[in-house]
Design goal:
about 130 residues; alpha+beta; Alpha-D-Glucose-1,6-Bisphosphate, Chain A, domain 4; seven-stranded antiparallel sheet; 2 helices
Length: about 130
Amino acid sequence: MTVFESKVTLNQPIEKVYAFLGDLNNHQQLMPENIYNWSSTADEARFTIQNMAKLALKISSKTPNEQITILPSEEAPFQIEMKWTLLQSDHQTLATLLVSAELNMMMKMLASGPLQKLVDHQTEALSKAVM
């Protein structure tokens, strides 16, 4: 399993960050420009990654104000799990995004850079989205 991680500290209460991340309708704001054909509900999202693949994701588990796990709801090009973990300290929230992907050597060479960029982009976009 290859793991990609990014963290961001937000000057927001954990409840606000959790409410935002717990609704997949909001995740469109966290996606880079190469994502299109977005459609979503609170628990599922479908989209296309330009020149790559179509993905369908769903929230598989939630722990209030702590963690949200997102998994593919349909067949994906490779096994993937997205996990948002939230920690509160003082009046700030530390949001960590971990993406775990089952990549063979060829896919690792092709997808590692884009997946790390995606993880970094999402945490940076989250800091702007929940201001």
